[in-house]
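Predict the structure of Glycopeptide antibiotics resistance protein.
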Amino acid sequence: MNEYLFPIKIALFTFPIAAFFLTLPFLIIQYRKYGYVNKYRAFILYSLLLYAMSAYYLVILPLPANVNNCTTREALTHYMQLRPFTFISDTLKETRVVWSEPASFMHLFKERAFLQALFNIFLTIPAGVYLRYYFRKGLGATLLFSLGLSLFFELTQLTGLYGIYQCPYRLFDVDDLMLNTLGGIIGYWITPILAAFLPKTENLDKDVELDKMTVGFIRRGIAYIFDNIIIGIATSILSMIVSASSAVVLQTTDIGSLEKSFINAFSFVIVIMIYFMVIPTVTGGRTLGKWITRIHVIADRREGELQEITFMDLVKRYALLYYGVYGLFSLMAWVANYGELPAYADVALLLVRAVFVFVLGAYFVIQLFRGNKILFYERVSGTRNVITLREEMEDHQGTSS
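Done. Here is the predicted structure for Glycopeptide antibiotics resistance protein.
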């Protein structure tokens, strides 16, 4: 039994790591496809990930101690068992069961050949359940997928983990193909019994009103990451262009650090204006990050009427955030680096910056637990993020084309 428990323990240990790296693409796919993240759907898909990792580890573990694992040079067919139903003869050969004594049948659960066959059936039962319950596949598709999954497992073993090991360290067994496929079919058959205790997947999005949903900070944070990657790249490119142009005009190759800081600040101001104010005016309040996460900025008038965003709305929104808050913090950092202040002034400025960061941090933490998720620069500018509805996406794509 330990040979089966060990891979599952490894799967449980590595699952959080895999989940961490897959969370960002998972969220993006959910936002793009459904417009929001359904917690129950997330639970299903993460449980599917855990099952897939467990099944894969059960197939490949334990690994040989050495990649040079060939004891003798044999033909590939030496590592293949191609006679169907060999597991039956192996079970009958090893068993201590007396068929006329039903009480002796319990011995089967202690015998290697029977347990191995049973394991191969159980290995793919969850796959059949997922296929029918969540992916809503029919019997034929479940059969083909289960067979394909089993073939993938067997080829993984036959190729020595895709060539990492010189020789296969487990047999390619035709019985495993049959038993794994049977497991998938059993999973398909028992799904209605299990589904009676679970929500219907076709109803997960039934009562969802995207137009009334609040855009959360995780979603906005993902958009922020993509947008600021672009901002950083664009600012660097523009800074190099301006620096090169300045060097030509001044006929020098030595631009001082102070001049470079001015050029970087100038480039940042221009990029912010183009990316966050000019482009969203044309794209209906969308930047690349917002498009990826399926949100856009709208004007939220005091009368409660939502309107399309204008250039001046965007200027108020992003000038306050980037030129105001971020600009003030950058100015203090610039003074600290280039101001040549006395020691007491440096300490005072450091304290001011620390208080500034603390106040902002506390403010964002407080807003995190508030219902409306509206930040100060949005209140002042009368703007906010909303989820882009499917028809709005289609209209925007049609207009763009």
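The mean pLDDT is 89.
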